[in-house]
Design goal:
Layout lengths: L5 E7 L4 E8 L1 H7 L6 H18 L6 E8 L4 E9 L3 E8 L16 E8 L5 E6 L5 H13 L3 E7 L4 E8 L8 H11 L4 H6 L2 H9 L4 E8 L1 E2 L5 H9 L3 H11 L2 E4 L6 E4 L1 H7 L1 H4 L2
Parallel strand pairs: 5-11
Antiparallel strand pairs: 1-2, 1-10, 2-9, 3-4, 3-6, 4-5, 6-7, 8-9, 12-13
The protein binds zinc ion.
């Protein structure tokens, strides 16, 4: 299996093409075990997590890359995020009453929203229409449109493992290295689903590229981690307003919030809600 819970970069000597391999196991399981997603949805969520890790390799600053697949059917949202330090989280929204009927996720007609969120500065958002049921094609289109860079993505998930393989032309190569690009991406397209899911990175690269000089870089770990905190949840609930929160406390004794990503439970009593609205304390 492309090495588990890690991301690994590789380059080819004398070409302007780079690649990344991603394998997810524990990090995928940490996401899937917290929810009871239908199998077809688990597969798409795993692929999106692999894609978010692959794309996070292009982050050149501290921050986070967030991918959202927005759909109009029984599944409405698939979301995966990876930080520049390799922390992943993911979530999906779907009509739980249709759980047993969801045997396929219709992507075509939806949108892929790619948000780059630097720790400092403005977020950047790109939107690509999903013109097919193949998630990888949307990423290839995104790079073609936004950076005029050739890129190829292979994304696989069997519910236990997720793997991703990306090849990308470096900016300098556009136009002057088409042979290498065509050759390397054609060879990658001979890789079978089960090979991507079951072989180590080294074996995959050897099998595809034994006639090339491939340089493999150190693996970078990928882990499940949620970015929720009492402070972030406080900010979110304070948008509801003092009166509404106090109404909830009058009815239920406290305001309870569960993080949708990691299921961490947060609760606020009347004093803690009061602290969120210092102006109310003056009276
Ligand atoms: Zn959380």
């Amino acid at each position: 299996m492309s090495n588990l819970d890690s991301m690994q970069r590789f380059t080819f000597d004398d070409t302007d093409v780079r690649g990344e391999l991603v394998g997810l196991h524990k990090s995928l399981n940490s996401v899937l075990s917290k929810h009871t997603y239908p199998e077809a949805l688990q597969a798409e969520l795993g692929k999106l997590m692999a894609a978010s890790a692959l794309m996070s390799a292009t982050l050149k600053y501290e921050g986070r890359l967030c991918l959202q697949v927005r759909l109009a059917g029984d599944v409405t949202l698939i979301q995966a995020e990876t930080t520049n330090t390799g922390e992943l989280r993911a979530i999906a929204r779907y009509d739980e009453s249709k759980s047993d009927e969801i045997d396929h996720v219709e992507l075509q007609g939806g949108q892929l929203v790619i948000t780059l969120e630097p720790a400092v500065g403005k977020p950047y958002q790109g939107i690509v229409p999903l013109n097919s049921n193949q998630l990888n094609e949307a990423f290839e289109e995104y790079f073609q449109q936004s950076e005029q860079l050739g890129s190829r993505f292979w994304l696989e998930c069997d519910g236990k493992l997720a793997s991703g393989f990306m090849l990308q032309q470096l900016p300098a190569s556009e136009g002057n290295d088409e042979d290498a690009w065509d050759r390397l991406s054609h060879l990658a397209s001979t890789l079978k689903t089960e090979e991507l899911l079951s072989l180590t990175n080294e074996t995959i690269l050897h099998r595809l590229y034994h006639e090339e000089t491939v340089r493999i870089y150190d693996e970078e770990p990928l882990t499940f981690a949620c970015t929720c905190s009492k402070e972030r949840i406080s900010n979110a609930i304070s948008n509801l307003g003092y009166d509404e929160l106090m109404d909830v406390i009058a009815e239920q004794g406290k305001v309870s919030v569960d993080c949708q990503f990691c299921l961490q439970h947060y609760s606020f009593n009347s004093e803690q809600v009061g602290d969120l609205f210092p102006e109310k304390k003056l009276h």
